Amino acid sequence: MPIPDRIAALTHEMTAWRRDFHAHPELGFEEIRTAGLVAERLLSWGIEVHAGIGRTGVVGVLHGRQPGNRRIGLRADMDALPMPETNDFGHRSTHPGVMHACGHDGHTAMLLGAAKHLAETRDFAGTVHLIFQPAEEGLTGAREMVEAGLFRRFPCNAVYGLHNLPQLPLGVAAIRAGTVLAAVDYFAIRLRGLSSHGAEPHRGLDPLPGATQLYGALQSLVSRRVDPHGTAVLSIGQFHAGTSDIVIPDSVEMRGTIRTLLPEMRAHMEMLFRQAVAGSAAAHGLEVELDYRRSYPPTINTPGESALAARAAARVFGADAIRDDFPSLTAGEDFAYMLHEAPGAFVLLGQAGDAEGSAVPLHNGRYDFNDDLLPYGAACLVEIIHDELRDRGSLPGHSAPAA
After folding, report:
1. Phi first, then psi: what are they for 105, rounded to 5°?
2. How far is it, in rounded angstroms, from Cα 123 to Cα 110?
3. Disulfide-capable partner of 398 in 68, 254, 304, 387 (CB 3.0 to 4.6 Å)?
4. pTM above the 0.70 mark?
């Protein structure tokens, strides 16, 4: 896996940046320190900086040494998750209840490494827009940046993003056209009864029987109401009820997500879900409050940009390390909002290796980004720019430039 010497030389710096971000995680739209450090470093390398886009987003603008009209976006996410870290290494989170459990610290460090290398060489024709996005974890920071004028102020002929994938080994990249990640919808259900003394449940209306029945009904929607050839996932992540051992609670709350790959399946699952909630509530005489929120659309890579990213990654990892036959994943990504505005590709990079925690699943308290991936990810981003912004204009097979 050849890495240009100038990028390999940045490994120590990128590792230090990444571990500092990991030790100081910030939740979505609260990335004040992270965004400040990103802006500070970009400015120190002579890159034009625009801050506060989509609240805490940062965009760096870098022009190549050769003239050119094409403009390419490279995106990294910066936010952490609201969960405790159970690691005990030196760079563990210093903020209780907040940790980088998805590798956004590594994504930010890789894009910074690519930015530093590109700023030092400027060996391209055109403009690179370095997009450091807030609030990917369920808060649609990408949409916030788009609505704040991201692509009006910084037009992109194409936009690219990277994400680590612990289930793939280090040295493997998964890239293909089409739907690679699912649409994500969120729900919150509150079933209301009437609280009473635990010794006299008949004097109240216990919401727990209805809630537990609903829980079971929801778990059977995919297995019994969805075509086996379709793809849908329903997961309940929170179930809350009661405050005392001797009090029947007056309400129960359940929260979770539904993930689908196709628009028709998305609509079908929402219909089934609403029917199940209303039916269970009615059967038990409970009042119901339902908040059903459609969030990320599917992440869909465009053909020309996927092929370009695969060629670029093959020069870094080797042609045999590029996988284009992987199934769509049911995780979601708000990078999908950016792909609605410009053609592009989302590239998945394997990170399982010798580093402790590198194969632990995402969103796990023991997860840690594998620092061995940092120079390879940065090199992939640089190679994408070299292919996109050669002074020979648009490459064959690319989508038409944005207006």
Report:
1. -60, -40
2. 19
3. 304
4. yes
